[in-house]
Design goal:
Layout lengths: L2 E4 L6 H6 L3 E4 L19 H13 L5 E7 L3 H9 L8 E4 L8 H20 L7 H22 L4 H14 L16 E7 L7 H9 L2 E8 L19 H9 L11 H13 L4 E7 L3 H4 L2 H7 L4 E6 L7 H15 L1
Parallel strand pairs: 1-2, 1-3, 3-4, 5-6, 5-7, 7-8
Helix pairs in contact: 2-3, 4-8, 6-7
């Protein structure tokens, strides 16, 4: 099956799957030492590594195209740097910043339709409402199973499961493993997208006696869509998809009160004791929220600013996390 590449949670994998294609929503690897790959000038470290990952993947036979969205100025810039070809075209999909108006939802619906035409041009098949609804239900059920596993998984295990689901879709087996120790310090990881190597960040936290009980990054639970209203799937499945995906909270939304409402609810429900606020260099969208994060929830906050994946600055991160954990105990 041909694959479409993206890193954005606002590109619904069920919409791609309904077109008989596969969306691979991936976490880029840290490519700072990569040679022979273009791209990266004038973009943040994350966008740089996304560019290089997409360029490397575009040489494989099953990669049909690339979808980048406008939720981030750095990624918008990356879309212009990534060379599209007849066999590996690039679509820049517009995602509205203002989310609470009917006009905003209609813009998103029209962009999903434009994405659908793009998928057909890649060799996909436009679905009827029945096929789309069935695909949406399959993804809904898989996400429900994944969320159920969350209650019984350590932070590192759940992060791996979520990454596998993003890469492979609902065929992933969501067997839980042991949860973190009962006396572990409960942490929330908040911020922008993660690299593939950031699995190590969760493991470092666990080695220090903590556990990430809430992954509120834009690679984690924060951007998992709510369940579909099944009564709306029979006659208007695409509009229901737009409604649910349009409610995903994020720092780029304006207003972004849904982000803080979601955080407030989940931090309290999971008994979080401290927040690790992780931002990428140049990510003004998330850095601008630091003051509100510090003042809004009455919890200690550790700000980690990084220029790549965790292994690249492991020593600095480990030392700061250890000091933070000692404060929380």
């Amino acid at each position: 099956m041909k694959t479409v590449l993206s890193t954005c949670p606002y590109v619904p994998p069920e919409w791609v799957a309904a077109h008989d294609l596969r969306l691979r929503r991936f976490r880029p690897g840290d490519a700072r030492s990569a040679a022979g790959l273009a791209g990266g000038a004038g973009v943040c470290p994350y966008a740089r590594d996304v560019l290089r990952a997409m360029e490397a993947a575009s040489v494989t036979e099953d990669t049909a195209g690339v979808v980048i969205t406008t939720v981030c100025d750095q990624m918008r810039r990356a879309a212009g740097l990534l060379p599209g070809t007849d066999s590996r075209p690039v679509l820049l999909m517009n995602v509205p910043t203002t989310w609470q108006t009917p006009a905003g939802q209609q813009i998103y619906v029209s962009e999903l339709r434009r994405l659908g035409r793009f998928l057909v041009s890649l060799g996909g098949r436009a679905p009827d409402d029945r096929r789309l609804a069935d695909t949406m239900v399959a993804y809904d059920q898989a996400r429900f199973a994944l969320k159920e596993c969350r209650r019984r998984c350590s932070g590192s295990r759940f992060s791996r499961l979520l990454a596998e689901f993003d890469e492979q879709g609902p065929g992933v087996s969501f067997s839980p493993s042991a949860s973190g120790p009962a006396d572990a310090v409960k942490l929330a990881l908040v911020g922008g997208p993660l690299w593939a190597e950031d699995a190590e960040l969760f493991e470092i936290i666990e080695s220090l006696g903590g556990n990430v009980v809430l992954d509120a990054t834009t690679s984690g639970e924060l951007v998992m869509p709510d369940a579909y209203d099944r009564s709306h799937l029979a006659d208007r499945p695409l509009e229901e998809m737009a409604r649910v995906y349009g409610r995903i909270p994020d720092a780029f939304r304006r207003p972004n009160r849904a982000l803080f409402e979601w955080l407030g609810r989940e931090l309290a429900a999971r008994g979080v004791q401290g927040i690790v606020f992780r931002t990428c260099l140049w990510c003004d969208t998330w850095v601008a929220e630091l003051v509100r994060i510090r003042e809004g929830f009455g919890l200690p906050v550790l700000h980690l600013d990084v220029d790549g994946a965790t292994p690249g600055c492991r020593t600095r991160i480990s030392g700061r996390l250890q000091a933070f954990m000692e404060v929380l105990r």
